[in-house]
Fold Transcription factor with AP2 domain(S), putative.
Amino acid sequence: MPGTIIHKSGSLLNSLVNRNLCTLSGIFLSKHPYKPKTREIIHPHMTPPEYLTPSGCFSAKTNGLQQYIPKNYYRIKWIESMRSGEYLGEDYPWNLLPNWKYWKKRKYNVTYNEIPWFISKIKGVSYYQRLNVWMVQWVENGVHRIRRFRCAFGILQAKLAAEQFRKNLEESGRVDNRKSERQLRMDYIQKREERILRKKKYSKISKGQF
């Protein structure tokens, strides 16, 4: 019996010596060798209002030599984090729990993104899961128009293409409520002859000449 124990202990020692340091650390230090699946937490994101001035918390500078903290900075920051979805860490919301052993030994991993992949910051760009397309919608000269971008070659690639297309539309003045003063003036000059012709027709109709 003692010889058997010595033989087993010797074989165990030889097996441990032949292993590398990582394997030894895995044997003695790893209490949970099973790595569970990663859970994706989708935090609600809302685009900020377009025609309002940005909040004062975005202009604050809390680091460096020249610091600037506006009035009610922490309250405004707390409100903005609740409204728009502030990045609170990869392990949010479980990273807010106390640093006890009970929470450190949990058997799940968490990933958290600032903005979900199916939401776009650009206005008029939305994802339709049933059709598996990114759709761009805009109004041009009073006509509602739609263009679809299929996700056959990649969802994120289609998203970038849709956002770039929307930006090109706004820069070229094809969106009614996104035109600059120069673009509005050019449209007014181009439609001058049409307005004059309409005015002549209306004057003849009102006089009973037609």
